[in-house]
User: What shape does this take?
Amino acid sequence: MPYIIIQILAGLCLPTQTSVNTKLRKKIGSPIYPAFWTFLTATAILLIVRRVIEHGETIPFGRLLAEPWWIWIGGVCGVVFVCLNILIYQHIGSVQTVILPALGQTVTGLLIDHFGLFRANVIPMSLMRALGGVMVLAGVLLVTRARVGGSASGEKESGLSLLPWQLAAVGQGVLNAMQTAANGYAGRVLGSGIRGSVVNFLVGLTLITILTAVTFFKNGSKIRFSEEPSRWWMWLGGVCGVIFITCNAIMSTLIGNGMTVVAGLIGSMTGGVLIDQLGLFETPKRPVTAAKIIGIVIMLAGAACIRLL
Assistant: This one.
């Protein structure tokens, strides 16, 4: 039970990371800069954690060169995920920013399991797993329908205008499932889930460093700071990311992959609800309705059917 609680708390880090990165983006403009800071600090912290846990054992990167090209895509998916998250959050709020990627992740995860993509262990589609997927979809539809019709300020929002952002959020989930599968395989090749995560962050850091340099020089070698008030917690995106990734790697060996995923989802959705309802991290308040709560419960039940039964 203590491990499950720890993983639920780790899940809170995902919506928190999105919120603080969005605030940082308002301060320094482009979403590339917050993403760079996230990957830089997360990589540094993860390397320290790995040194403590694995006593600084050398990572055999040479083994990866003989593996399929897609073993490196985890970091690329991570960069796209973080940058998109910052943009999407401003339009659909914390709850949907967590829930819609969960839909994409669930559907893609079922396909990866069924067909054994990315050399994953084959888990054939069963009636219970299919039912769980339908429940996740039903929960998402209920939550998104509850969102349309009014914002925190009471202004009407068009469901059609939100659709591109909602589809982008679902696409994030697809990338997340691919990232998880690729990182999982890298971890098996390297003999450690933490090593697989290190490779993920190093690839992501390399890519985001290049994008940051291009953005910096394109803007005249200047970072234009806005008059947005500075807050100390604006810089915690990388810390949130590495806590979640590290807990996933450790807890999956202690409570199993299925329980790790479900507990993380519980934490993420709870965090999204609290941030929207209370306007935490100076975000606009988006009242959480009974329909949203019911939708979230249906989603979690569906995830439990897929992962635990």
In short: Residues 27 and 226 are 5 Å apart (CA to CA). Residues 2-307 form one domain.
